[in-house]
Design goal:
Strand content: 5-15%
Largest sheet: 9 strands, mixed
Number of strands: 12
Mean pLDDT: 80
Order of helices and strands: HEHEHEHEEHEEEHEEHHEEHHHHHH
CATH topology of the largest domain: Spore Coat Polysaccharide Biosynthesis Protein SpsA, Chain A
Structural class: alpha/beta
């Protein structure tokens, strides 16, 4: 049961009505969209998530809110808070939502240029809008984050813990930065490292907010997860899969990816020589990193195909192709998946792009030949199907005639 202190504080926040947009607003109400994948709204999880949502809608001007997933109570809460709601989302075999899918959907639905992914139990403070306005005034594109600072569940005026430089609870970004994000899932530590690393190597400003009045994470257990505890979550198979997708990302603190620091309203370059050297190394090795990431996409696509998820496999292959265009092995696999999906025109088009490749050209020729055989035999197969259908229809007609004449009392 919640203590009296927690109950009173949360009640005050939950009963606060969203403020009307101010004429002195820093950002327009349509400029910002906050999106999240809430857990079930049950027990303490329900209470702290409502408190988090209340803090979001009370930002002034009020941002758009977009909630994903069909967990218990999300539909009702979305209606209550006037949030956009997308119940059906792409999930992995453990029923965990794919982060790349959600980011893409949130970007497509957002009216403004800036989107914020936020943990569903994180309190957002008004300082976030000021920070975003500062970054937007200086950069056409940027990524912004703040390392995790925690408070006890519901005790909103408690002193937060020191920043955890390996974790974050929100990241804000301008749309279109991660067109080739791997298939990370929600709730694991590999994705934030990859996101910041990828932005840094593409010279997108990465801003580390050091101010304390931005985001506070409410502490909770992990009984709501399939794994039951944080320790088992970290060592779970899906965590291993996420870690594999980020194999090429250094196991360094999140702060090592920041090109800029925002503190006390001042946005300055991160002049730490270790950071400057790190970012320079990233950019000099960009081609090697692109190839490595395309290999990761290819491996994930192979696993999806073996599970019978050809459409998911094709989606991953397209992302890999955007990461490293004209990678011949990836193109051959893409042609093969199109063939499996009976999209023969696309299969031939992909195969023709690598016909002259000394290693994979023969494979491309084999796919084109297989398509030609399918097209030659397709009319014959269709004729056989039509003949069988006509025979069945004729037989059924005879049986009905016999019944009408009383020659057959019943036929089972």
């Amino acid at each position: 049961m919640l203590s009296t202190t927690i109950s009173l504080q949360l009640l005050a926040l939950l009963e606060t009505k969203p403020g009307s947009p101010s004429s002195e607003a820093i950002m327009s109400s349509s400029a910002l969209t906050i999106f999240s994948c809430p857990r079930n709204f049950v027990g303490l999880n329900g209470v702290i998530q409502r408190a988090a949502l209340a803090s979001w809608v009370n930002l002034s001007p009020r941002p758009q809110i977009h909630l994903f997933g069909n967990e218990l109570g999300v539909d009702e809460v979305a209606e209550e808070y006037g949030a956009k709601y997308t119940p059906h989302i792409l999930r992995n075999d453990f029923d965990t939502p794919y982060l790349d899918y959600i980011v893409g959907e949130a970007e497509a639905a957002a009216a403004g240029p800036i989107v914020v992914y936020c943990a569903s139990d994180a309190i957002l403070k008004p300082g976030l809008l000021t920070a975003l306005a500062t970054a937007q005034a200086r950069f056409p594109q940027f990524v912004m984050y703040s390392c995790r600072k925690e408070i006890p569940a519901g005790i909103l005026d408690a002193d937060p813990t020191p920043p955890d430089i390996h974790r974050l609870d929100f990241f804000a970004f301008t749309k279109g930065i991660w067109a080739a994000m791997p298939g990370f899932v929600v709730g694991h530590r590999a994705a934030p490292r990859w996101l910041l690393h990828d932005a840094a190597r593409h010279s997108v400003p990465v801003i580390d907010i050091r101010s304390p009045d931005i985001c506070l994470h409410q502490q909770h257990d992990y009984k709501h997860t399939l794994w039951g505890s944080e320790e088992r979550l970290i060592s779970s198979p899906e965590a291993s899969q996420d870690n594999h997708l980020a194999d090429d990302v250094p196991q360094t603190p999140l702060t090592s990816f920041a090109s800029h620091i925002l503190e006390d309203g001042n946005l300055v370059e991160n002049r730490d020589p270790r950071i400057l050297s790190f970012v320079q190394t990233l950019r000099s090795n960009e081609r090697a990193l692109s190839i490595t990431r395309a290999e990761v996409f290819l491996h994930a696509a192979e696993e999806a195909m073996y599970r019978g998820h050809d459409q998911e496999s094709l989606r991953l292959l397209h992302k890999g192709d955007r990461t490293c265009p004209n990678m011949t092995r990836l193109r051959l696999f893409m042609a093969a998946i199109h063939f499996r999906l009976e999209d023969f025109d696309a299969a031939v088009a992909e195969a023709k792009t690598i016909l002259n490749d000394p290693v994979y050209g023969q494979g491309a020729q084999n796919i084109i030949a297989a398509v030609e055989r399918e097209r030659l035999t397709a009319p014959q197969v269709q004729m056989i199907k039509e003949t069988k259908a006509a025979a069945v229809q004729s037989l059924e007609s005879c049986i009905n005639s016999f019944r009408s004449a009383g020659l057959l009392a019943s036929l089972s």
